[in-house]
Specification:
It is a single chain. This protein has 161 residues and is of the alpha/beta class. It has a single domain, classed as Dihydrofolate Reductase, subunit A (3-Layer(aba) Sandwich). The chain has four helices and ten strands. The protein has an eight-stranded mixed β-sheet with strand order 5-4-3-6-1-7-10-9, sandwiched between helices.
């Protein structure tokens, strides 16, 4: 199964200047719980936005740079090769950025979205979720609080077969 996992604003914003625009601790906890122990596919810029590789995950990085070989990571030059590098029996998570989400969307079986209920100025966006191809199967709303500046919802979409 291939799952795209992302925190996405109401206007589909993902980030700006290779960084997140918001800070939602519960989203980070959910991301860690869902992706730990699995293969995660990302673009080079997303990988480089981390201070270090994420623990307890196998990193598959897509880049066109020929001499890019971070230690302990699988490096490929296409979404197809990234998927091939992962075991077929595994749930694979695509974690960004925007270009990688666009490339991976046709291969995805599920979308795990943290919907941030706000509009942000951004330079990276998530692809449009076509309601003819994706069905919302779960949604759990959370209101802003002292640790979360925005209302948000955890949403799961399943591909319509």
């Amino acid at each position: 199964m291939i799952t795209l996992i992302a925190a996405v604003a109401d206007n589909l914003a993902l980030g700006k200047n290779n960084d997140l625009i918001w800070h939602l601790p519960n989203d980070f906890k959910r991301f860690k719980a869902i992706t730990s122990g699995h293969y995660i596919i990302m673009g080079r810029k997303t990988f480089e936005s981390f201070p270090k590789p994420l623990p307890n995950r196998t990193h598959v990085i897509i880049t066109r740079q020929k001499n890019y070989h971070p230690e302990g990571c699988i490096v490929v030059d296409s979404i197809e090769k990234a998927i091939e590098a992962c075991p077929k029996t595994e749930t694979i998570f695509v974690i960004g950025g925007g270009e990688i989400y666009n490339l991976a969307m046709p291969f995805a079986d599920q979308l795990d979205i943290t919907r941030v209920h706000h509009h942000f100025e951004a330079d990276t966006f998530f692809p449009e979720i076509n309601p003819k191809k994706w069905q919302l199967s779960e949604s759990e709303k959370h209101l802003k609080d002292e640790k979360h500046l925005y209302d948000y919802s955890f949403e799961t979409y399943l591909k319509i077969k």
